[in-house]
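Tutorial handout. Part one gives the primary structure; part two gives the three-dimensional structure as tokens.
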Amino acid sequence: MCRMNYLRYLGPIGPRILGIAIVLAVVLATGLLKSHGQPAGTNTPPGANATLANASPPAVTVELSSNQLNAIKIGPVATQLFPVEREAVGSISFEEDPAIVQAESTLLGAAATAELNSNELARARSLYETNGVAQRELEQATSDAQTSAAAFKAARNALLALGKTDGEIDQLVATRTLPSASDSHGITKWLVANVLESDSPLVRVGQPVKVEAVPFPGHIFEGKISKVYATVDPNLHHLPIRCEMNDPRDELRPGMLADVTIQVADPSESLAIPANGVVREGDGTMTAWVTADNRHFTQRTIKTGLRENGEVQILDGLQNDRLVVTDGALFLDNMVNAVPSD
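Part two.
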């Protein structure tokens, strides 16, 4: 009754307004239903939005004009030999390591004491059998012999830990004479360096080294590893090595600090591009620009390694048949990242 009165009040347009209201109500209800499921008007399957969000961004490509091409240089990805090296810090030393000299002296003293107490024990046993000494004296001689034998063994193990061989130790004990140290002045010098524990499996006797002493920056003394010690420092986790170097002008003195570069393997051949062709982005990634027509350039994310003579080792991201920007990569990067002017 109320609806009829309302329509009568609206006059002839009343039924038309009522129809429009009903249509709007149906459309609104349909939209609400779809908002709880898949968005209306799309055919995207569930999970597709997440896949799109995780997809890699499209490659950045720029086109240069003839004038802009003058700001860059282009060349092929080349190959180059890169040294396989490790760094260490050391100091110029004497011909013989002072620690070894001290250990050798300790060994000789322990050997003499052990021999003396061994002879005393043999004498005490002989006298004890004929009641020439009391049992207490025999027990004391036995204790002294055991103590000195243990000290001799410890001194021997100390030298083994410092890199001496059993043959060298036996020779030292047989002669009872410390090796004579020659004058430290001459064309041959020695250095003791500390290699990181993680690099210790790589170092070997005979590997070439390059030494740059602090008082002579830029001057390289060449040599080789002459000894790799047997133990790692438990506090610093470094492995000591000993190097023999050439010093033709007699410039190096014991105690001088030095940087040591050790060639741990033969040089490896790798892809390389000039350093001016590599850009470090704000997030730390390294990029380069490749081209197929010398006009359109595409940015590539690369993984770099060593640097040698102005060349950067490329571990991933480029192929050796590609043309790349060898100079002016930063120019292209600035073009992409430039803030548009109003």
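Part three, for discussion. Residues 207 and 224 are 5 Å apart (CA to CA). Residues 61-82+268-337 form a domain with the conserved putative lor/sdh protein from methanococcus maripaludis s2 fold fold (CATH 2.40.420.20).
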